Amino acid sequence: MTLRQTVNFVTLTLAFLLLAPTALILASWNSLPGDSLYSSKRSLEKIALGILSPNYQAQSSLQTKLISRRLEEADLTIDKKSSSQGLEELKAQLALAQTQVNKAPTPEAKQQASQELVTTLAQTQIKLETKK
Prior knowledge:
Oligomer: single chain
Structural class: mainly alpha
Number of helices: 5
Number of strands: 0
Strand content: under 5%
Shape: flat
């Protein structure tokens, strides 16, 4: 096998191996609580949080982004499915974010994470109030 053939083989193999996870990520991206791919979406988020675990700031930032995502899901599930399952997911995400704040390595990091969480909660409350 020539070098070019070997490189082509390795490239095709890697592309094939990455195709399935990429397809799963794309397919589950817009799934809502109750959808068949929602558990895959949540699992991928947990993996991302695990990967970021050595970096407290990055993990904390992702937690607050996930709160916004859960809010959007809650909004959509209430509108489309007449279900409160999205609100339960939002509540669980808020609890995880609070746990993340409590794990802060320094008082400064805890203060920053708390402020970020309070800001996100205030925005969430406003959005929920307008939804009523």
